[in-house]
Structure formats: C-alpha cells, structure tokens
Amino acid sequence: MPVLLLALVLALAPAASLADAQVAADPLAGPWNVSVPGAAAKARSVRLPYVANATDFTGRRGIKSYEGSVAWFRKRFTVPATGPYVLSFGSVHHKATIWIDGRVVGRHTGAYLPFEVRRTLTAGRTHTLVVRADYRDPIAMKHSGWHRAWFNFGGINRPITLRAAGPSDIVAPTIRTRLASDGSAIVDVTARLRNFAGERSLALTGSLGDHGLRFAPVTVGHGGSRTVHAQLRVTDPALWAPGHPSLYDLTLSVPGEASWSGRVGLREIRRAGSRILLNGQRLVLRGASIQEDAPGHGDALTPADMDRIVARLKRIHANATRAQHPLSPELLDRLDAAGILVWQGVGPVDSPGNWTERTAHMRSVARARVRTSLAQLQTHPSILAWNLANEVGGQGHSGGQAAYIDGMARELHRSDPGRLVGLDIWGTHAPRRNGLMYRHIDVLGLTNYSGWYDHTFSSQATIARVIRANVGALRRAFPTRAIVVTEFGAEANASNPSARPGGYAFQSRLLATHIRTYASMPTLSGMLVWSLSDFAVPPTFNGGSIRGIVPGIRLLRGLNQKGLFTYGGRAKPAAAVVARLFG
C-alpha cells in the first residue's frame, strides 16, 4: 500500500518549479505539495509548517477530523554539490515515513520531538522528498504513551531544513552559569562531538560574546562521540532576567566541518528551601499557560502566530508561562528575547490515566522523550524548570510512575544542574506526605480549580479560605519545597450570563480571588492562569464535570474556553483584570 499511495501522491502533485527547488538558503524552502486521500481531488500547494486538519475541530466534522488521516507531503529540490546531507525535522505528527527518490530513508513516531535523516545526494539531479504523516487513531496514541492533551492536529507541524553534512557534527550544546561572590559569572559550556570519519583528534573552538572558549582536543573513533567542556569567568556579566533579558551570541565550530550558533543568556537558577532564586533574588512567577494552537494553522505556528503569543503574555504582564509539550525552538527564541520564563513540560501529559510508565518499553520511550527535549532546548535561558509529568496524584499510580519520575529527576539534576525539576500535582488528589515520587523534585506545581469544579456557587471569601487550605495542606506535606500554583481558572464566553458560571464577569471575579489570595501567601513561588488563550481539544470534550454542577451552562464542544483571550485572539474582560493584578 505505501508504494501505491506514494505513486498516487507523485501523480496528483504538480511539479515544483526549478526556482522553488533551487532556493539558495535552503533547498526545501518555498511551496510543498500536500494531499490527503479522500479529502481532495488533487494536491494543494502549501508552505511548511502545515497541518492538514487545522480548521475542522468542532461539530460532526470535528469528530472525523480528530480521528485523523494520512497526509502526504512532497518537495522536489536540487543540491549544489554531491555529498552527504542532513534532513532535520522539527516535528511530524504522528508517525512519519520519509522517502527520497522512492526509497524509505527514515521513520519516526511522536510529535514535538526533532529527528534527523542523513543521505548522500547528487548535484545536477532533481531529487524528490516525500513525507507521510499518519495521525490516525488518537486513542491508540494515548494507550501507547503519546497522549495529545488537545486536538489531534496532523502533519508537518514544525520546520524541515536541509544542510550539507561534514565529517563531524556538534550535538547537544549546554550552558550553565554560576554567580561568584564578587559578582562575576562562571560559565560552563559543553557540547558533544560526533565523528563520521576515521579515528582522529577533533578540536572544538568557540566564543561567548567577546570571550573566547577553549576546549581540549579529543580523540574520537569512527561513528563515536565525545563530550568536550570549556569554562570561563565573565567579570561584569549582563545577566538575563525578566525585565532585562540580556543575550549573548554563542558560537561553536569544528573549523571547516561543523558549526553551531545561538543566542544564550547568563543567569543562575537555584532553590533555597521553599524559595526559587534567580540571580540570587527571590523569584515569584506570574503568567498563564500556552498551547501551540492558532486559528487556521493548528500547532503549525507561523512566526506571526508566535509573535502574537508573546504579545499576549506581555499584555498581561507575565514574567512566566507554562507548556505541557516541549515548545518549538523558534517560540523559545522569542520568549528568551522577551524575558519570559518557561515551566517546560517534557514528560507524559495525561498522568491521571497515563499508561506511559506501565511497561519497560513505555518507560524507555518516555525517558527518550525527556532526553531528546533536553538535548534540543537546554541552551534557552527562558526555561526555568523541566516538568516531568502532568497532574500526578498521591504517591503515583501502580504502573511504576513513582520510580520512573524519581529516576528521571535524578538524571536531570546530573545532566542539567542549572535548572529546577518540577512536577505538576492533581489538586484533588494531592499527596499528604513526601514519598519516592517527590524526593528529588525541586518545585511542585499545584492544580487548583476551587470556585470552578468545586465550591462553584460559594462566596469569594469561602473560595479564598478553600484556596488557602489547599495550598497550606501541600505546604505542610512539603515544608522545604518550592510550590507554584500552575493551573487555575474558569471557562468563559458570551453565551452565558456574565455573572453566572461560564460568563465573563464570573471568570474575572474568580481569577481575581485566586491571584489576590496567592499574593497574600508569602511562601508561594508563583501562579500561572489556565490559560492564555482558548484552544482546540478533542471534540468529545464538552466542559467536563462543570456541566453536572451548572445545568444549562453553554460551552462550545471541542474548544477549551478557559483562556484570557478567545480562540480568535480577542481579549476577554479577565485579561485586563489579570494584567492589572500582575502589573
């Protein structure tokens, strides 16, 4: 069947122009052809990233769209010289199969994770690249440890690039900053060198701003890799922090063979008992969670979509945000430049019912996901904490969740000692004592929907007392851990009476109660509203348990409306309330 469908794609798709195939900066830039069997008579011309079902997520069409399909992408291109090349994929959802000139050259499973394909290409020939994105059956994805958490957008949802491959490669650079008592910054930079030639000595060179980096040469065998390290002291550092996000250029190279460059920040993050310290000063987070979801594009965000997300965070005076899936490097670049910290999810999302840790294979997949995200994203100064799971309960489920989280927390502390390790807790099933799952966690994130899923019709004074009781109980269980309320909020739209549950005034009033209450608790390390904007979810989602609590509430099936901004980007009244309280 793949061969027949591949032939169908080639037959339906009009040929790309030679000008498109010879884009100097990147041969894969410009229009691609995409076809979804049964969806259209012929292929469409699109630009990447692109998902095939970004517009149908509500109603009957939403159910069929959510169940998924197979999208075929094709690009014809040329290369300037014969030799080895690397195809870098930012993300394909969900199962990717890659052909070049009719031969399968790679496969990958899972979204929001990068992967690469190496292939020798010939100059003077027009090559054909085909990518098959199979995003069928999100229920099977969940049972295999790949729960989506929101809508099942399918396709190539992050960029693809092509570069010439040298005999060596620079992989997984890291940077860590420690502040000395004299105010200088001790900066450690590492990178892994891969060697594709015979055994030899490799020497990495580099610079951080105006400062040179000195790495000792290492001997690397064919197909092997070695990690190299350099340290320098910056005597008068421009430190990165919200409000003044200073950035430095970091460049690394194996001269004539490989190079890496990026913008990095010098900042020290550590925990002192129950406090989070950024550059030695106590840090209190204020912000809202984000999803990579934009009208007409789904999670295949354009640069303009990313700019709008950052602009909305700035509008509410956020110094932090939270994401359940690893964010794209392009969006993190913008958050770095804006000085907005990130509570970055890298582990299983659906912990209350997650199967991920229940077999040895699934534990292995989960660990690989964390390691891949760490290797890709570690240089971004905005990332405050690696969050290992979403809404865990009690001491963890019986499938080995506690041991998995404890093991990954210890590994992250070894691999990235300059960041915190976080864990989101299911508020209605919060632990009453410490345990294996929490012993190496720095900061606990608490879900608290008091006033929405419980005490919905209570007075604001009662809700405030319940909030204090919930946070206080977690504090008593973990007196020396940092705690952030990472999820609180209420759905709101114009279809409900404003002051009633589901209305705009109700949302504004409840968020104000939460924020004022959290601000009055001196040991709390922050609060993150759920969420910044409305976003698409499975079309079966119709508000959850609130429907039984508030008969007659009007919610749009397939859309989570807890956002401070509508799906289209219009600010709800609560956005101004939150901005005033955060500001």
Describe what this molecule looks like in 3D.
It is a single chain. With 583 residues, the protein is an alpha+beta fold. The chain has three domains: 2-164, Jelly Rolls (Sandwich), CATH 2.60.120; 168-267, Sandwich (Immunoglobulin-like), CATH 2.60.40.10; 278-582, Glycosidases (TIM Barrel, Alpha-Beta Barrel), CATH 3.20.20.80. The protein is built from twelve helices and 35 strands. It has an eight-stranded parallel sheet, covered by helices on one side. Strands 2-1-4-9-6-7 form a six-stranded antiparallel sheet. A four-stranded antiparallel sheet has the order 16-15-21-22, with no helix packed on it. Strand 15 (205-208) and strand 16 (211-214) form a beta hairpin. The protein is globular and about 70 Å long. Residues 1-24 have low confidence and may be disordered.
Features:
583 residues; alpha+beta; Jelly Rolls; TIM Barrel; 3 domains; 8-stranded parallel β-sheet; 35 strands
Give the topology, please.
Layout (H helix, E strand, L loop, with lengths): L1 H11 L5 H4 L10 E4 L8 E3 L3 E2 L7 H9 L2 E8 L5 E7 L5 E6 L2 E7 L5 E7 L5 E8 L3 H6 L11 E2 L3 E5 L3 E12 L5 E11 L4 E3 L2 E4 L2 E4 L3 E3 L4 E10 L5 E2 L2 E2 L2 E7 L3 E7 L4 E4 L2 E4 L2 E3 L1 E5 L13 H13 L4 E4 L5 H10 L2 E5 L14 H18 L5 E5 L13 H15 L4 E6 L17 E5 L12 H18 L4 E6 L16 H16 L6 E4 L5 E2 L9 H4 L9 E2 L12 H10 L1
Parallel strand pairs: 26-27, 26-33, 27-28, 28-29, 29-30, 30-31, 31-32
Antiparallel strand pairs: 1-2, 1-4, 3-10, 4-9, 5-8, 5-11, 6-7, 6-9, 12-13, 13-18, 14-17, 15-16, 15-21, 19-20, 21-22, 23-24, 24-25, 34-35
